[in-house]
Amino acid sequence: MKSSIIRGTFILTVAGLISRLIGFYYRIFLSNAIGSEGMGLYQLVLPIVGLSFAICVGGIETAISKYVATSRNSSLTLISGIILSCSLSIFMTFIIYINADYIATNIFLNSSCSYLIRIIAFAVPFICIENCINGYYYGLKKAAVPALSQLIEQTLRVGIVYFIIAYFISIHRPITAIVATYGLVAGEMASCIFVSITLIFRKNFNFVFNGIFMEIKKIITMALPLSANRILLTLLQGGEAILIPAQLIVYGLNTSEALSVYGVLTGMAFPLILFPSTITNSVSVFLLPTVSKAQADNNAKKISYTISNSLKYSLIMGFFFTALFIVYGGRIGALLFHNQSVGYFVTVLAWLCPFLYIATTLGSILNGLGKTTITCIQNTIGILIRIVFLIIFVPHYGIVGYMWGLLLSQVYVCSAHIIYIIRNYKISFNPFHSIIIPVLCVILSIGISLIVYFPLRESQISSEMIRLLIGAAVTTLLYCGFYYFNSPLMKKAKK
């Protein structure tokens, strides 16, 4: 069991890191092509995808993953989930397409994004089928197919957008955010086709329909509260996305400037901050079915062990990446995107890292234990905190007021998860190993790396980017080395 989690997490993490690297190149290329305003417009319509996911497949994917992990009739579970999800997705696509003008004008308050909404609507069925099949593989703890689908989706998306932009340039057509939506649909379509082909040729998979209505009913029973939770959260997040540029206009920016700031924050700074979360996201995917099975087996020791280690390693990662982003990440981001605002945003948002990683892993564990209502309530309060800051502080302090809300909301969600778990589950936590040692290691690592970095500024290395990357690499190697030789495992090994 433990080895399957580690192996699956490793595969997903490697694929995720490669996918994120491709994504970084894509975002840099895209931001240079369509500008920060175009990025803002594209980011503005993405909540449509999030809401469609929540309604059509979010809860269904989780139900498939959980039932496949604990049931022998996994083929019937997947087929039932796909039929249910596809039915919802076709209806959703139709609704979005015919109401695109209304959504753009009255909800997003920007009529120019109506065509983007129509294009994005066609991605919904592909997203649903792909995620149902991925949920099936996650339940089996088979990570290779979902991992490859990530890479295929990202690679084809970048390739399609590159050729579209090259074509637009050749015919002297303006390059707008529409190219990004074409890439999104193409990537989702390719990923869906790939996972479907793997399923068809899978030996242990059978196209069975006997008892399908009972299976659909079982999936609905579990998926309905999950979907309701996700729909609520997605609606609030969509409202948050709409409010950011709207409140920036109240602050004094014009529409173009507000979209530009929004595009820089959500399309450039956030992806950089979220890059390391590939690891925690990969772990979380496998934590849910793992703790579900442990709960079904009444294995309290396994649950306690999983929670304790998730908390410990989230803190170890969080302290490291906070320091790395503050010292090196901001300047690397500014150079990558040719925008100084990115550097400032990354430096401020770096403080999110420990809280973000803990909330991600513990939230997945709570969902796996059936505490979806608890996580929904806590996440909802977190979003409401951000919305309050948007309404009250952004008109007076600009985007800085929103970032204050981001930090406070993430601290709340993280703390709420921890408090609930401590009250209801037995966990083992050593502050010395999980907090003091990582903090000391990161201070030493950063200090030594700066001793290496500053002389490089006077050396023959003319590129500031290379100097910063060397400094970041030295920090990473030192931190891993320091923590490894100070870990409890090493102390036991020495004895």
TrEMBL record:
The chain crosses the membrane at residues 9-29, 41-64, 76-100, 115-139, 151-169, 175-201, 231-253, 259-289, 310-330, 342-365, 377-396, 434-454, 466-485. Coiled coil: none annotated. CDD domains: MATE_SpoVB_like. InterPro entries: PG_synth_SpoVB, Poly_Biosynth_Transport, Polysacc_synth. Keywords: Cell membrane, Membrane, Transmembrane, Transmembrane helix. The keyword Transferase does not apply. It is a multi-pass membrane protein. Its main location: membrane. Pfam families: Polysacc_synt. It is found in: Cell membrane. GO terms for cellular component: plasma membrane. This is Stage V sporulation protein B.
